[in-house]
Amino acid sequence: MSDLLARRTRLLGPNVPTFYERPLQIVRGEGVWLFDDTGRRYLDCYNNVAHVGHCHPRVVAAIAAQASVLNTHTRYLHEGILTYGERLTAKFSHDLNQMLMTCTGSEANDVALRMAQAMTGKTGLIATDNTYHGNTTAVAHLSTRRPPIGGYPPHIRRVPAPDSLAPLGGSLAAQPQAFAEGVARAIAELEASGHGFAGIMLCPIFANEGTPGIGPGFLDPTVEVVRRAGGLILCDEVQPGFGRVGTHWWGHDFLGFAPDVVTLGKPMGNGHPVAAVIARPEVMAAFRNAFGYFNTFAGNPVSCAAASAVLDVIEDEGLVENAREVGAYALGLLRELRHPLIADTRGFGLFFGIEFARDGQPATEFCGRVVEAAKDAGLLLGRVGRGQHILKMRPPMPFSRANAAQLVETLDAILRKMPA
Ligand code: PMP
Description:
Layout: H1 2-12, E1 26-30, E2 33-36, E3 41-44, H2 57-67, H3 79-89, E4 98-102, H4 105-120, E5 124-128, H5 137-140, E6 156-159, H6 175-193, E7 197-202, H7 220-229, E8 232-236, H8 251-255, E9 261-264, E10 275-279, H9 281-291, H10 301-316, H11 319-334, E11 342-347, E12 352-358, E13 361-362, H12 364-376, E14 379-380, E15 382-384, E16 390-393, H13 401-417
Parallel strand pairs: 3-14, 5-6, 5-7, 7-8, 8-9
Antiparallel strand pairs: 1-2, 2-3, 4-10, 9-10, 11-12, 12-13, 12-16, 15-16
Helix pairs in contact: 2-10, 3-10, 4-9, 6-7, 11-13
The protein binds 4'-deoxy-4'-aminopyridoxal-5'-phosphate (PMP).
Family: Belongs to the class-III pyridoxal-phosphate-dependent aminotransferase family.
Protein name: 4-aminobutyrate aminotransferase-2
EC number: 2.6.1.19, 2.6.1.22
């Protein structure tokens, strides 16, 4: 392991993140399980990419079958992308019925930003002050993990994210209005600055912000403000999409609003790099006419076979229903966990957060120790939030009640041993 780490640093350079103080070498995956080089197995409670389970045999077989027949770009006619796109867009309402394929969520978001600019003829964009939407230059300007060299460009505005430790002021219940007011101020600034307002990019459940315990209707005041200003709502569904929220296929349907553009990624190919933008026809037309678009790899027959197999498995194995049922069961158990530093426990389907705070401030170091101890106990968890103080759990969708019980029992044992 230490040899691999040294080779990695020598080859890839500094600051290439690993999980854990002593990184794991994972060599195999199956369902909700990952196996390390010693054969030890870990319950994966973090990986939303392996949406239908690691190495699902139907996805593997679909990739292999198509790869052995044809893989090429989208400048030839091919049935695969059409069949897939028709199935996928049928899962959307609000006239979101056209698709553009990319290979990553970052590219999808990059296209979405340009769609807003093509529709409005303006350049101003808004995101929250604690988020990540990807790694192209344009999209990185919205992300807050590392400010760009030279600072944020003047056509970008960042608004305070909803936060259960309440920096927006007042209780979470008062935050829909406070959030919308932040957006209205940013729009006014963009209009006054001459950039104008093109659109706002949001994850509907604010996954990277820390999945605050918002519910249906939270974004209604914001949607109204954006619509009144003539901007577009760009909905980043890279994390909540494909049924993870349990009640719906998409986070925006759970919250109950109609976006202009939706971006998809991570879970879409179960690990195969495939992503997409879904838009209303007039938005797609404005983008295609303004920019044109070709992507050498995106939408190729193998990617479409992988993505189609993911839809098959979600439907045939009832995974959206599973997310709803097991998610509710797991959330009930997680809410019974007791520790003086637990400030809040929340979840949407198979997406959970436990927030640790000390005197109302993020308990960053404590949360880090929980993640490390969980790994030692055979559980893979992540963390998120402005203080990296929120345990983040997003297991593969076939997560069972037994898996949920194991997660909560293990966490309980860990928390009992960790003094505040
Ligand atoms: N949007 C969100 C909300 C994400 O979490 C991520 C990845 N963490 C991305 C976009 C970028 O996706 P990708 O890594 O596929 O470019």
